[in-house]
Amino acid sequence: MKEKLVQKNKVLRILIVDDDVDDRQLIGLAFKEAEVGHLIDFVKNGEELMIYLRQSFSTEKNHQLPDLILLDLNMPRKDGRVALKEIRSDADLEKLNIIILSTTISNEDHKYISGLGVTKCVTKPCGFYELVEIVKNISEELLRNS
Predict the structure, then answer these.
(1) 87-138 pLDDT, tens per residue?
(2) What CA–CA distance (Å, rounded) separates 55 from 71?
(3) Percent of the chain clearing pLDDT 70 (strictly above)
(4) CA nearest 70: which of 108, 19, 109?
(5) CB 85 within 8 A of CB 116
(6) If DSSP states are collapsed to H, E and C, what string results for the chain?
(7) CB 66 within 8 A of CB 16
(8) How far is CA 95 from CA 19, 29, 117, in A?
(9) Where do the domains of the chain lie?
């Protein structure tokens, strides 16, 4: 029982990749409301995501790879599909835990991303408290599997 208590209090590093400033703020607030206590970082598109991940290997930065990436699919500059393919084709990054969190996820998207080893696909909910529940569920699953 004590082991589960320690596990539950584990702080995870979560990277949220979303171009919409309102969505980034809402997701951040949902993590606070869920009181999971994880470290949350944000980037705005796939280009910034790849820079962030590559900095994780820099000795100059106190940067670690995230335990989880919440990835939006529809973004400018480099969308989530392209970034996901790039991550999965990189031996240093291919095992990263990635959940798609996007406004729309088509059947074609499901087929494409399931072939790239995405943990889960979640459509962004309309309500804030639905988002809080999603965040809690994601956190619990991540802690259970880490």
Answers:
(1) 999 999 999 999 999 998 888 988 888 888 887 899 999 999 999 999 999 9
(2) 18
(3) 90
(4) 19
(5) yes
(6) CHHHHHHHCCCCEEEEECCCHHHHHHHHHHHHHHCCCCEEEEECCHHHHHHHHHHCCCCCCCCCCCCEEEECCCCCCCCHHHHHHHHHCCCCCCCCCEEEEECCCCHHHHHHHHCCCCCEEEECCCCHHHHHHHHHHHHHHHHHHC
(7) no
(8) 24, 28, 9
(9) 2-145
Residue-wise pLDDT for 23-35, tens only, equals 999 999 999 999 8
Which position has the token pair 């944000």?
42
What pTM value is reported for the model?
A: 0.87
Q: Which CATH number fits domain 2-145: 3.10.120.10, 3.40.50.2300, 3.20.20.10, 2.60.120.10?
A: 3.40.50.2300
Tell me which amino acid residue 141 is: E
